[in-house]
Amino acid sequence: MTRSPDAESDAGPAAVGPARAFRVEPVFWAWLVAVGVDLFFNAGVFAGLFEQSREPNLLADEVLFARIPVAYVVVAVGVAAVAWVVDLAQITGARRGAITGTGIGLLFGLTGLVWLWTAIEMTLLFVGAGLVVQTAQMAAAGIVLGVVRRDLPARQLRWRSAAAALALAMTAIVVQNVIG
């Protein structure tokens, strides 16, 4: 993810500094890790919350699963927002990226879930779980994007992100079978 000598930015040609996070490839890999986090929680730890008997206002499983791609597009938009803020605030490193992502996740999660809670009946446990998931997704994205700004080579970004997403998805399957 290092810059080429002829890279252009607001600072002019051959700008020196950290790699930008608000680009397609870093956002994609951060999104993939955020999807892994989603699978870990929603298909693993919190899978039991998606039962009609527990949350009677949930959509039928067929409709719920058909809408998952829309949810992942929204996650991509959230990750892009984290990337934009990471670049704007010149955040570098995993810890600072995680803090930034956590803040954005809390903001998105609180506003969206509280708004939904005012309109439809949801248990407090379901609202809390949703907040945890959204916050964790954006924190994970912030970690990836903060590391990108530390000039993590593209190859390492790809391998680490793919490995993290795969590990999270596999852990979700294990957790679902142990809990469920």
Summarize the helices and strands and which ones pair or pack.
Blueprint: E1 8-9, E2 12-13, H1 24-45, H2 61-66, H3 68-88, H4 94-119, H5 124-148, H6 154-179
Antiparallel strand pairs: 1-2
- Helical fraction equals over 70%
Rg result: 18 Å
Order of helices and strands: EEHHHHHH
What structural category characterises the helix and strand content?
mainly alpha
Quick overview:
The protein is mainly α. The chain has 6 helices and 2 strands, in the order ββαααααα.
Protein model, in words:
This protein has 180 residues and is mainly alpha-helical. It has one domain (17-179). Helix content is 70%, strand content 2%. The protein is built from 6 helices and 2 strands. The chain has a two-stranded antiparallel sheet. β1 and β2 form a beta hairpin. α1 packs across α3, α1 packs parallel to α6 and α4 (94-119) packs antiparallel against α5.
Question: What are the defining features of this structure?
Answer:
180 residues; mainly alpha; globular; disordered N terminus
